[in-house]
């Protein structure tokens, strides 16, 4: 296991931040350090879904963010909404935009990483690149600002593999700052938390079919991006 000394200490403030709610969906702003769903151990019970279910007992998880990642998550309020949203994620109809502070100066202003991923089982929960049995994983990126020490990048995951953005940035030689699983000693010590944030999530409302965009401000640095394009065809 890659985390033998891991101690779960989820943040309590804010306890739960809602960005949007109606009869069919809920959108929350997950803090870094909180699990999306409960872990197997009793000490790992606290999570987004357990907190949400105290207020909305019927709500269910549609997708997940890594424990160390913060940002926008959507949940379903009923079974038809869950099916509709799940289908959007599976067929890649949703649009996602993340921001990350990464180690070093990313020289190429934009590009993509297309490397298949699979669980590194002896070192789980770590993932690794595997060209033989790995599942396809594609990330597009754009450099926002940079210096010799670090770069701020916008990340657009086309697929949604576990730890995809973290492993893909590592493959470029630029681990995300504060990443205790994949970073070097220097990049791990550069930040107190993983510098990865799910800033934007766009999807079709499961009942109205209206294209909706949900945003969460970056919790690190002073950069705040312009709103994402609302056109689902772009």
CATH superfamily: Pseudouridine synthase
Unreliable runs: none
What's the CATH first level? Alpha Beta
Global mean pLDDT:
95
Compressed to H and E, one letter per element, the order equals EEHEEHEEEEEEHHEE
List descriptors.
isomerase; 234 residues; two-stranded antiparallel ribbon; 4 helices; alpha+beta; globular; Pseudouridine synthase; ten-stranded mixed beta sheet
Summarize the structure.
The protein is an alpha+beta fold and 234 residues long. The chain has four helices and twelve strands, in the order E-E-H-E-E-H-E-E-E-E-E-E-H-H-E-E.
Topology:
Layout: E1 18-21, E2 25-30, H1 48-53, E3 60-61, E4 70-76, H2 79-90, E5 95-103, E6 110-114, E7 117-119, E8 127-129, E9 138-146, E10 150-157, H3 164-171, H4 185-189, E11 196-204, E12 211-215
Parallel strand pairs: 4-11
Antiparallel strand pairs: 1-2, 2-4, 3-4, 5-10, 5-11, 6-9, 7-8, 9-10, 11-12
Please give a structural write-up.
With 234 residues, the chain is of the alpha+beta class. The chain has a single domain, classed as Pseudouridine synthase (2-Layer Sandwich), CATH 3.30.2350. Helix content is 13%, strand content 30%. Strands 1, 2, 3, 4, 5, 6, 9, 10, 11 and 12 form a 10-stranded mixed β-sheet that branches. A two-stranded antiparallel sheet has the order 7-8. The longest helix is centred in the middle third of the chain and has 12 residues. GO terms for molecular function: 23S rRNA pseudouridine(746) synthase activity; tRNA pseudouridine(32) synthase activity. It holds the Pfam family PseudoU_synth_2. This is Pseudouridine synthase. It comes from Alteromonas aquimaris.
């Amino acid at each position: 296991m890659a985390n033998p000394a891991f101690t779960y200490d989820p943040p309590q403030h804010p306890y739960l931040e809602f960005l949007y709610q109606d009869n069919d969906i809920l959108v929350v702003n997950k803090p870094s350090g909180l699990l999306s769903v409960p872990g197997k151990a009793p000490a790992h019970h606290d999570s987004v879904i357990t907190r949400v279910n105290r207020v909305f007992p019927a709500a269910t998880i549609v997708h997940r963010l890594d424990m160390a990642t913060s940002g926008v998550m959507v949940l379903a309020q009923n079974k038809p909404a869950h099916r509709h949203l799940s289908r959007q994620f599976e067929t890649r109809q949703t649009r996602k935009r993340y921001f990350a502070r990464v180690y070093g100066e990313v020289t190429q202003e934009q590009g993509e990483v297309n490397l298949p991923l699979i669980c590194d089982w002896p070192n789980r929960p770590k993932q690794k690149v595997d060209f033989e049995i790995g599942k396809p994983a594609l990330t597009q990126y754009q450099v926002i600002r940079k210096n010799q020490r670090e770069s701020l990048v916008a990340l657009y995951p086309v697929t949604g593999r576990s730890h995809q953005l973290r492993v893909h940035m590592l493959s470029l030689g630029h681990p995300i700052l504060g990443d205790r699983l994949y970073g070097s000693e220097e990049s791990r010590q550069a930040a107190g938390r993983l510098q990865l944030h799910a800033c934007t999530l766009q999807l079709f409302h499961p009942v109205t079919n209206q294209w909706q965009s949900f945003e969460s401000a970056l919790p690190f640095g002073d950069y705040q991006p312009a709103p994402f394009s609302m056109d689902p065809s772009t």
